[in-house]
Amino acid sequence: MNVDIDKSSVVQWFDGQEKHRCGYCKHSDTSITHGMWAESLTVDDYQNLIDRGWRRSGKYCYKSIMDQTCCPLYTIRCDVVNFNLSKSQKKNIKKVNKFLKDGVINKETTETIDSIESESHLHIPKDHPAFDLTNINTNNVDNVLSGYSNDSQKPSTSKKGVTTNEKCERLEALVDQSCDTENTSSQKSITKSSCKEGLGADPNKPPCKKAKLLRIERKKAKGASVQKNSTPVQPKTIEEFLEEMSIDNKNKLRPKRFPNNEEGPGYGSFHQQYWLNEKLIAVGVIDILPKGVSSVYFFYDPDYASLTLGTYGSLREVELTRKIQKSLPEFSYYYMGFYIHSCPKMRYKGKLTPSYLVCPETYTWIPIEKCLNLLEANKYSRLNEDIDALDFNIPSEEDILQIKIIYKRSLLYFRDFKNFVEDPDRFRKIGDLIGKKCCNTLIFYENSW
């Protein structure tokens, strides 16, 4: 068998169902998942696992048993090529930009949005398996290429400024002046006049139009004139909003470009750091995969909670994905972990539009707008409404027989051992969970049969 183990994904499967306390609904032993420990995992394999409903926390990979667990976990991703900023997201960016400009922060407001993916909600096995991959009997031929990663750099800095009351004083003076002018003009306009008897309205003239109707007509005429004389205004992109920073800003929060003028740092795991002058105020943990950026975790200094840095960080990660996508057309998605409809704190993820959920039965991506009514009715639901749609990544019997296994320092095919194991259907179940693509690439480490 020609396989290079050093460039392959090596995992150990955890038999049975993992039952533990749910970090979302807080119930005991109601969160039910399948799990495996990945001693090594290539970016291609992890990409295929994510698209099949898996997620990693460190080296532990898990997949919710959707029809049994208390809070089904639906993988969610955003199409960054067609990304649209909402009003609230624009407001968040403007709030951060305003803080960078004047240095004023309102500490009475608190962060209302959680991090993209909190590992604290997940139970991770304490006793993870030990792997001995030395002297494995194989013929050392490349099988899977893994990605690489570089250390993040902190951005450039400058000195922090101090706020003043000049604006308040000027505003107060303007208000006083305005009030004096208004009082003078109103006194001139109020005059008494004697009423004279008349003959009433002229029956030969049309009735007078109401003032409200006149205002509407003038507004329409003005709008038509503007439309004729001006070109349509293009909405600002997320990049334009994020880069609206004056050179006179008292605070500096600028991302540093990748080294050597590269468009991206390569595949792998990274820490995206947010430096305010000389102070680290937030960190985003991300995985850069073949199809896009996967947000793992985000944490920040609570002194800056009013800036809603969780939202700001996700928008920065969308911007990063769009930047890399210009060089890699297939790099089009921002993965936000799991969407949990029964958990209100997680519903904000659907506000990054357009977003899609993966169907737990066909593993096709469905617009979230089409899923909401289904999830309101049932916490677990097949999201693909096409009853004839199938899972095209389901492994065949031959794929199952070709699964590679390390046993007693030898690399073997499952076909050679299926007649000697207690549960011959074990790898059939595993294959259905990981999909055809991963059946051909993952290597399973077995201690005993």
UniProtKB/TrEMBL annotation:
Pfam families the UniProt entry points to: ATE_C, ATE_N
Biased composition (Polar residues): 179-193
Signal sequence interval, chain numbering: none
Domain called N-end aminoacyl transferase N-terminal: residue spans: 20-91
GO cellular component: cytoplasm
Ion transport in keyword set: no
Domain of life: Eukaryota
Keywords assigned by UniProt, alphabetized: Acyltransferase, Transferase, Ubl conjugation pathway
PANTHER family: ARGININE-TRNA-PROTEIN TRANSFERASE 1 (PTHR21367), ARGINYL-TRNA--PROTEIN TRANSFERASE 1 (PTHR21367:SF1)
Name of this protein: Arginyl-tRNA--protein transferase 1
